[in-house]
Amino acid sequence: SYLHSGRPILATALPTHTQVLDETTAALFDPEPAALAEALVSLCRSPGRSEALGRRARELAEERYTRQAFLREVEELYR
């Protein structure tokens, strides 16, 4: 649901998040309070980057995380 929202995502740069997200779909930061603050401030100061991250996240969601994408993958597996 976060990806589908089209809003910029802040996420820790841990495998739990980077399995789906990368630098093109989220502002990734080290799991430290100062790093979170820095990432948030950076997004606030860069509306173009924020918009691009949100747009790319939505595109990723449409490509990989919709019912249609799921059905395509299942069909591919059966082939």
How would you briefly describe this protein structure?
This protein has 79 residues and is mainly alpha-helical.
Please summarize the sheet with the most strands: 2 strands, parallel
- Total helical elements: 5
Number of DSSP E strands? 2
Strand content: 5-15%
First-last Cα distance: 29 Å
- The average pLDDT score comes to 96
Spans of 5+ residues with little confidence (pLDDT < 50)?
none
Radius of gyration: 15 Å
* Helicity, as a percent range: 55-70%
Give the overall shape: elongated
User: What is the element string, with H for helices and E for strands?
Assistant: HEHEHHH
Instruction: Determine the structural class based on helices, strands and strand pairing.
Output: mainly alpha
Strand order within the widest beta sheet = 1-2
